[in-house]
Amino acid sequence: MGKTPLESVAGLHVLITGAAQGMGLLFAKQACREGAARVVIWDIDTARLDAAAEELRRLGGTVEAYVVDLADPAQIHHYAAEAVESGGIDVLVNNAGVVTGTSFAKHRTAQITATMQVNALAPMYLTHALLPQLGRRGKGRVLTMASAAALVSNPNMSVYAASKAAALSFSDSLRLELEDNDQIAVSTICPTYISTGMFAGAKSMLLTPILEPEVVVDRAWRAMLAGTPLVLMPWTSKLGQLLRGVLPRAAWDFVAGKVIGVYHSMDEFTGRTSRDAQVNRG
């Protein structure tokens, strides 16, 4: 069943995770500019969250800011219940994430756990908590930021890729479950590397530049409003999927490693500082 597109989020209640900076803050600004009735922002960084809330209020937004660690299911459920009780949520943007970029052997157990908790489990817990009331005003949306890493294996991204593959599979499976629900639409976005600082040191690939966050947010937002199921960006991601599907494994490994450059794109990854990495738990 086709979903009725939204012109904007005017009059709706929007919750965005990881909204103290980067793409999360850009999503929140867009919600305020469109006249959302209420914008709820979550992040783990108190100082940046407070600054973001003030900036959004200067845009005219009605903003509620909460310090939430998405690695803690109890916090997710507590603040989700609070969001429902204080007006409900119509639009959920699962934006927060953490990036790990090193060989699997060098990953710490705590690092593996946190990555899976924030990138894969938190969107499930939060969506599950909000889903029963999501379409009660007739205009429900779930937007989940996955990654092109969910689609293509890549050295030094084993845990991150696994977490985003889980997010993608969850989100698109939920979309299928809600196909007959004309009040709720689910969209999943899979971009390549984005210049937010989280991917500092990552290399661009053949015909695939590092994406600007404003471009990704704009495309993701339009997809959410339209109820578009899945967005791969840029266009080379679609080409990569085609080649990976038709080429023998050895041929694809050669193309990905030697021609496109996927397999060496994380060789010089540094990411944000340890403090900033924590911020992205949202």
Note down, in words, how this protein is organized.
There is one protein chain. With 282 residues, the protein is an alpha/beta fold. The protein has helices at residues 22-33, 46-58, 73-85, 109-130, 158-177, 213-226, 235-246, 249-260, 274-279; strands at 13-17, 38-43, 63-67, 91-94, 140-145, 184-191, 230-233. The chain is 44% helix and 13% strand. A seven-stranded parallel sheet has the order 3-2-1-4-5-6-7, with helices on both faces. Helix 1 crosses helix 6 (213-226) and helix 3 (73-85) packs parallel to helix 4.
How are the elements arranged and paired?
Blueprint lengths: L12 E5 L4 H12 L4 E6 L2 H13 L4 E5 L5 H13 L5 E4 L14 H22 L9 E6 L12 H20 L6 E8 L21 H14 L3 E4 L1 H12 L2 H12 L13 H6 L3
Helix pairs in contact: 1-6, 3-4, 4-5
Label this structure with key terms.
globular, about 280 residues, seven-stranded parallel beta sheet, alpha/beta, 7 strands
Decide which structural class fits the backbone: alpha/beta
| Assembly context of the chains | single chain
Number of helices: 9
Number of strands: 7
Order of strands side by side in the largest beta sheet? 3-2-1-4-5-6-7
Give the averaged pLDDT, no decimals: 92
Note the main sheet. Answer: 7 strands, parallel
Radius of gyration: 18 Å
- SSE string, helix = H, strand = E? EHEHEHEHEHEHEHHH
